[in-house]
């Protein structure tokens, strides 16, 4: 009888050890997968890449809560002029495929024109600084560019691409998308 109890106890211990070791192995494997995927995620794009992307084409970009976000007061749009180093800020009612399309729709409500610059912060992130006067009041805003983002705006079926960013106005930081619109791809 004691022999059977000892064998049963031994088998139980072996089973418990096997379950314990299997759980430990799974946990360390999942942790290594997590850290590997986290390490591969970019924290930002290179400043030169962001700058050339923003200034390419008509330089017309949107600051919005999300790709399909709605706002009763509209959203901000910025037209960057690579020749002058100035950015004209507008309020628009929705995404337009281009500056020209927004202009044709008479949808550009001008807020003001400011200077812009691109730099890199201590965390190796691209920062776009907008500064000047808006309606005679000093204005300073920064956009800290994070990761790339893209999607389709459901209302207009436009392709939206750009960056997730943090907008800082008077030390009030907000997560936004900093994006541009383009025509949907035809099949």
TrEMBL record:
Sorted UniProt keywords: Signal
Signal peptide: 1-22
The name this protein goes by in its record: Lipoprotein
Organism field: Secundilactobacillus paracollinoides
